Amino acid sequence: MTPFDLVIQGGTVATAVDTFVADIGITDGKITALGSKLQSSGKTIDATGKYVLPGGVESHCHIAQESSFGLMASDDYDSGSVSAAFGGNTTIIPFAAQKRGQSLGEVLDIYHDRAAPKSVIDYSFHLILSDPTDSVLKTELPAAFEQGILSFKVFMTYDLMKIDDRQMLDVLSIAREYGALTMVHAENDALIKWVSSRLLERGYRDPKYHAVSHPRVAESEAVHRATQLATFIDAPMLVVHISTEKAARVIAEARYSGNKIYGETCPHYLFLTSNHMDMPGPEAAKFCCSPPLRDAETQAHMWQALQNGTFQLISSDHAPYRFDETGKLSAGPNPSFKECANGVPGIELRMPLMFSEGVRKQRISLNQFVALTSTNAAKLFGLHPKKGTIAVGADADIAIWDPDLERTVSSEMLHDNMNYTPYDGFKVTGWPVTVINRGRIVVESNELKVERGSGKFLKRNPTDLTGMPGNVAPELNPEKNFGTILR
Ligand code: DUC
Ligand code: ZN
Ligand code: ZN
After folding, report:
1. d(Cα 174, Cα 180) in Å, to the nearest integer?
2. Which of 67, 130, 210, 239 best tests ligand 1's pocket when mutated (most atoms within 8 Å of CB)?
3. Which of 16, 52, 435, 482 has the lowest CB atom count within 10 Å?
4. CB of 342 closer than 6 A to ligand 1?
5. pTM (global) more than 0.85
6. Any residues with CB less than 8 A from the CB of 232 and at least 6 apart, and which?
């Protein structure tokens, strides 16, 4: 047998289903053998006593992107991808956000230019659609799908971004036709506006009131509405950043009935609560994200939804805004809850936090960890089996984990372009120590080993909907609607 370029020897390999001890042989960036006593003509890594896991697929992060208020994220594709890699990720799928009036072609050109010279790991984009004109729906979106960008996010709130229910139906209908995945930020806009204006009228302006201004029912109502619309069209939909028990139950119910509905939650809803915001003045802005942090009881429901398969993804929703005038304090040193940028950083800590608090504390198995942080995203976003698993023929995207390495989190140890972390002082056990993307060693001995711009753009396939039968609404079914053809 020809020796391999790289061999990872003696580690405990885990995929979304299996755990076994094996050597991994890598040739030309791909996994070419799983076996024992494999010989390398190049480098050999001794992984004895370590876990050898698929690299993370981080499918929800905001990098070099203007927010829904127009503020640029603190991380570009250099710091964002480096931070992701140090956190065990080998693929990122950030957003390419359309401003109203912009064509999707223009948007994608801008984001390709932002990513290609800088990303150290592989990447794709989800579009954000804020302006679903006829040209966008009929020409520009299909063109983007053709380029392998088969997912996009829509918003039900934020004046500069939101689309209405009728537009949502148009968008879902196109997505269904092309096998694309609609991601949705589901919060009821009117409820948020109603509570926010009452708060401000009554003098409650500090950032901590952000937690009050986005009521739980705003999420559950909108998740119900969005998933009902998707179910009517029979189009796949991923509800992102779910933060409430009721919304989780809506997802569970939709999935129980065979609908193509998926759910995601984020580390901040598992590890932080609104108690972290209970302080006067601007410090609470460090914890402002949307939907907002909830309470410990809700955290338990989020864990349950991950454990029982209601949610398929745990994503960082890394939305980095520094605690200074470029970010959280861009409206001044004392912003109201309406003026501070929405979002928390976490791309480097998503997997370590989940490993430490999830796997080590036996809330989830090692295989569930792999599924939730890598394999499911690869499947949902059309990258599997090239990404998201350890198998012969797959890209050699691997993170080697030291399960016993203990570190206390501080902003200084992270590689993002932030000046704070909401997880400051957290004790985390279990960290990725070597990260490999397409056979290239990206991180080793706490150092970056590759050039900026060496990550590759990934052309994706449609979501694999096998096992998701869906339902045809009677009104759209010619056998039941007097023969009308509506889709
Ligand atoms: N939605 C996100 O997905 N991230 C940050 C803020 C928001 O509204
Ligand atoms: Zn959102
Ligand atoms: Zn987000």
Report:
1. 8
2. 67
3. 482
4. yes
5. yes
6. 169, 473, 476
